[in-house]
């Protein structure tokens, strides 16, 4: 006979829901923010990174310059934990670049935290990079063969070494020289003695926008960062564009030949970007609602309520509900204040933690036919638990709808994804996935439906994770070599200190 706690929680598998949800998600590489010509550059960058925290939660850093002094602070953790007022006061200057990171290429370690800073014969530089360089492994081997000493496992570090080795005369020409050597995705901001330089790769994989704040200039991965600091959005950087801001003036360069196609990562619109951002000229929120509407037309079902998987499924679920004229209900509740660091001293407490973080309202779903809307399915472990929670709360039917096509391939352009073999849609048919999840029905958005919605966007898209159509060929060079580096002993790594 089950205990009261077991009866309350439901199936044993639900005990691992919170941890499973962290593993069963895509994670973006990072967010970048840059300031030129503002007396509160460090504080503005702190606020900008705070707005971009969703793009990376492993590490954060800010580098500043006043033309004579240069300072940087980087640490593991969230922006609000990494920076204090005391630290920000020690970051002088009117110019700054900042970075929040989630690892894609390279381990989760302080050695890989950005901005990367270096002293060159052209002066000090600090680089914040969002994206992934598919030929970083080959360049790393070449650099090491020529005597370079690399101290991180991040692909972004090769940019710093290429920049330092360039024989061009100006920082912008050195950066362009370095970028001409790499293949893959990059949106970046580089700080020098007297300039802020920003660049976007010719395919346009990752977003980067420009704004004005008084007499100063701001660049950021998303426009939501401008809203927080009161900056006025100017425009997005175009694919292949390099901008140089020096002495208060902005200069645009287009040094690279056009790419064969534009390939903006459609997952930015589906999941990564904050819904209050405008990305490549289109509202993220409205785009997600449109995906939900298309999904409702493609996979209608008789039901009593549409329930989003919080928070990424909210807009798509609302679009589905409006199109299908089914009530929208937030019957799946998530506690926003439970972190992954929640202390779990025993198995029973771990079971209880599931209901602390996620709960299905029995009063709302009992005896009801529920449509559960999610933005994507990666491994499937999260939805397996959520369907179980709905069943346990008394739902008579659970229909799963996904506002993106089946994920059949990994991303090589700046998203942390499982291997192809770990993706449930690579290994199983839609019907097999439905059976695994325990859902009554399962419907994915079609690739044609996604591309139809994307026709309203300003640029062409990359949907390789759904279509297997990769804009840049990926070969063995995409994987960095196995590296043997000294392990960094960080403050909380007590086991490394010995007894």
What's the quick description here?
The protein has 19 helices and 25 strands. The strands form 7 sheets. It has a 7-stranded antiparallel beta sheet. A 6-stranded antiparallel beta sheet has the order 6-7-8-9-13-14.
Salient structural properties:
seven-stranded antiparallel beta sheet, alpha+beta, Glutamine Phosphoribosylpyrophosphate, subunit 1, domain 1, 30% helix, elongated, 499 residues, Rossmann fold, disordered C terminus
Under the CATH scheme, which class of the largest domain? Alpha Beta
Largest sheet: 7 strands, antiparallel
Number of domains: 2
Number of helices: 19
Strand content: 15-25%
Counted beta strands? 25
Give the mean pLDDT. 86
Describe the global form.
elongated
Question: Percentage of helical residues?
Answer: 25-40%
- Unreliable residue stretches: 1-22, 340-351, 476-481, 492-499
By CATH's scheme, which homologous superfamily of the largest domain applies? Aminohydrolase, N-terminal nucleophile (Ntn) domain
Termini separation (Å)? Answer: 44 Å
Rg over alpha carbons: 23 Å
- Structural class comes to alpha+beta
CATH fold-level assignment of the largest domain: Glutamine Phosphoribosylpyrophosphate, subunit 1, domain 1
Biggest sheet: strands side by side, in what order? 4-3-5-2-11-10-12
Q: Examine the secondary-structure arrangement and name the CATH architecture of the largest domain.
A: 4-Layer Sandwich
